[in-house]
Design goal:
Elements (H helix, E strand, L loop, with lengths): L1 H21 L3 E2 L3 E3 L1 E7 L8 E9 L9 E5 L5 E6 L3 E10 L5 E11 L4 E5 L3 E2 L2 E2 L6 E3 L4 E8 L4 E7 L1 E7 L2 E6 L3 E10 L6 E10 L7 E2 L4 E4 L6 E2 L6 E5 L5 E2 L12 E10 L5 E14 L9 E2 L3 E5 L4 E10 L2 E5 L6 E5 L6 E10 L9 E3 L5 E2 L35
Parallel strand pairs: 2-8, 12-18, 20-25, 26-33
Antiparallel strand pairs: 1-3, 3-6, 4-7, 5-6, 7-8, 9-13, 10-11, 13-16, 14-17, 15-16, 17-18, 19-21, 22-23, 22-24, 24-25, 27-30, 28-31, 29-30, 31-32
Amino acid sequence: MKNILFTLLLLIIYITQSIAQDKPIIVGPSEVCIGCETYQLNEISPNQAQLEALYIVNNFNPNDTFCATIQNGQGSNATYACFFCPGQYTIHVIASFPNGETRSDSLLVNVFDPPIFSIEPSDSLSCGGRVGNGECQKVCPGFTETYTVIGNIFSNVEWSVTGAQSYTPQGNQVTVTWGESGFGYLNAFVQGLGQTCFGEAGYCVEVKNDFAANFTLPGNQFCANETFSPNPENLEGTRYEWDFGNGETSNDIVPVISYDQAGTYTINLKVYNECGCFGTFSKEVTIKSLYLPQIDCKSTICENTKMSYSTSASCGKFYWKIVGDGTLVEGGGINDKSITIDWGTAPVGYIELEVADCTYDQCPKKPFLKFPSYQILQPSPGRQWHAGTIPVCTPFRNMLQPLIIGWCREAV
């Protein structure tokens, strides 16, 4: 019986010593990012083992003394290893025990670069230019954009988005539909190679207000054939789209319009800014069955050229007036519905027409029409106009924006 107990005691001692010998002296992470990490030294204390040696070796360059350092914490079993280069390293430790035993241990450590990356939009052009350092990308409400993490190798990306109507992450990309005006933010949390290297990048977006499209009118009731202009309050748009409700449209900032028929029309304006953001605004206008006379021809003409103008107004009296250096050639009397003028060499000319005793209701507003300048073309010095050149008249739609349909040919 005593022999059996003695044998068991020896077995227990042997197993205990084996376990102690198998127990690692240095413990810590085997995959790290560039930076410093803490490692534990087991059984290293005044009452246990004494630390004899602690050093680190660059496995790819054993003579390297720059890429890694290691230092034991005084009065502690913690040691601090700092890695400055990616690669593979081995931490070595040698300890002596009270029983005279000397043991060594080592730990293989793989060191990775941290993920270095940025967030880039699919369209790098923001409103008015490229997004610069420290600037937020400018977009419109409801704008959809895809953003991509671009950088060194990574294994996983997690997205966080604020200020969006919705967003759909897919790997290293996220598609965002931005919400109302204000600021939005994207954050990408990236896991690099290994399991311990992480990085974070942010991206700023400014969601601009819809562009103001208000406009004013000189009134809300006008006569048929009367010209007037809507005036937009915001003159900083990059594109203006007018729809006058009668089939006519314009892209002028301040258009000139008139309506042939009485009725109620809706004037619509859509204004875009440099981002493509737009605003809309509408106003109704009433056109009365009160008419202004029309002059049916206007053109650019050559100097010393005769030009005839007429009106289709059903009236009993016509009061024609020439403003400028033009000379009356024919017509222009109180009963004449037409007038012929020789404009001479004057650079500009105007015609005014006042009517009375009409078969239709006349517009109570100023009863005459004043047309913009007729440009009098002149030949180059030393030349003259070719004989037989005749300017052409055509009906026009817009009294303040004539079609330039006349021409002059110089003699050789």
